[in-house]
Amino acid sequence: MALRARALYDFRSENPGEISLREHEVLSLCSEQDIEGWLEGVNSRGDRGLFPASYVQVIRAPAAEPPPAARYANVPVGGFEPLPPPAAFKPAAQQPPPEPFPPPPAGYPFPPYGGSYQPSQGSDDDWDDDWDDSSTVADEPGALGSSYPDYEAASGSASGRYRLSTRSEPSLGPRGAGHPPGHPHPPGGGGAAKSSATVSRNLNRFSTFVKSGGEAFVLGEASGFVKDGDKLCVVLGSRGPEWQENPYPFQCSIEDPTKQTKFKGMKSYIAYKLVPSHTGQQVHRRYKHFDWLYGRLAEKFPVISVPHLPEKQATGRFEEDFISKRRKGLAWWMDHMCSHPVLAQCDAFQHFLTCPSTDEKAWKQGKRKAEKDEMVGANFFLTISVPTGPGASLDLQEVESQVDGFKAFTKKMDESALQLNHTANEFARKQVTGFKKEYQKVGHSFKCLSQAFELDQQAFSAGLNQAIAFTAEAYDAIGDLFADQPRQDLDPVMDLLALYQGHLANFPDIIHVQKGALTKVKESKRHVEEGKMELQKAEGIQERCNIISFATLAEINHFHKIRVRDFKSQMQHFLQQQILFFQKVTQKLEEALHKYDSV
Predict the structure, then answer these.
(1) Is this structure's pTM higher than 0.70?
(2) Is 288 annotated as a binding residue?
(3) Which stretches in the chain have pLDDT values below 70?
(4) Which Pfam families match (predicted)?
(5) Given Cys at both, which of 4, 96, 164, 299 links 382, Cβ 3.0 to 4.6 Å?
(6) Is 286 annotated as a binding residue?
(7) Which residues, including other chains, have CB under 8 Å from residue 362's CB and lie 6 or more apart?
């Protein structure tokens, strides 16, 4: 018998791939399995598409289903009275329908039913995200097991490789509700047992907190093998939590961009020579290799700000100015990669730096290994090792205050960086065009005056004519100095600002992950106070939130440390170049002045 469902509420489709429903309408279901809270089916008008699972009730054949029938798998058998038939529901005007799950983005390619579901890689988060403070509670039959992280040596595993897991509570549907939202609790639910509640899942399944695996980790669903070499250690430093320093720091230069060809000259590209200081062996990499590495690192490290690469360009890729500018941008990128205690030691990054350019087989093997890395998503957080013992715990209110302060700081810095970048760009444009033109116009005017004076054939006026002509040449040279100067001082400042604008664009997502974890802790504490959750379960959630908080604060401290280093160095360079520039201008004017001494 075909699966059918009855619509409990009206639903109006708003995105491609969705269908509208009318209350009491009977639909045919393609499958009873939902995709992130959405079902696929055919309505009475023959339209096929997606609709919210919470808006319908599956119609089950009495002989085929064990009694009593319950729509939600997490409702205790016999614990609640059956839901009334659809006709007994209140009219829609008196009882609003539940809020559906956020629909997939417009134009999202829905997979065939039963296939793997891959959320969009884009992030819908911004600075003013709602941190899901109004989360709901789900009633469950007695949850078993502790929520503390369980560190167990895997039997038979190699030395230095450990099974790391967080014992999860029984799985919930995306809404995490024990009854349809918008309906009163059915009678018979009685007083909830102390362990009958759990923290709900976020409604927005496309949020960074969910896609990064942060939610699954906090709810205790992560499990994997962690090698000693994969551990990322956070230590307590003078400024608070910090990433443990790389014991073998190194740098890597990017030099000699050269144009190369393949396929008998049919395809051209630019290759950059990389020379890591810890190996001394040069390798050549194309921009596509940088781009691949960036994608892997951005996916693997959700609480680390992976620096952005210089932007791509469709045309003019082989022009000298573009190649030079890209090389400088890549040099800044490489400096930040090598300076980060975690990124610098990442296997994928080391493969990128050390694999010989001519060994295509070794490159592909390392590439596949990085792409099959299991310590991503929720499992990534298992690799983070945080301080323990007296004085190592975090005060959540203080953490929240620090993160909010950093959020305000980055927003203000982003605005200031945009303003400075615009000002510097406009000033550079004026120097290259306007200032050069104006100074050379003054020089030309002096030259015309000198030419006019040369009409006087008196010998005593020759020295004056020559001095004025030299002054004209001085102003012409000063114009050229102005045109060339932005390359020396303003361009490096704008290159640094571009790099930091990439970092600032990363932090909203990083903050969102930490905020999402903090919200789950608050919710669990509320359940403990209401007697709906065991203290041990809430402590497990808080412990996992602490891991995310330690990592977030460590990344914030690293950002401030590197920011002070970079802007100190760049401002010193800018002012030094400004002083040299005006010394050159002064020298030209003094040389012109001395020409009048012999007149």
Answers:
(1) no
(2) yes
(3) 1, 61-198, 264-265, 314-316
(4) BAR_3_WASP_bdg, PX, SH3_9
(5) 164
(6) yes
(7) 355, 356
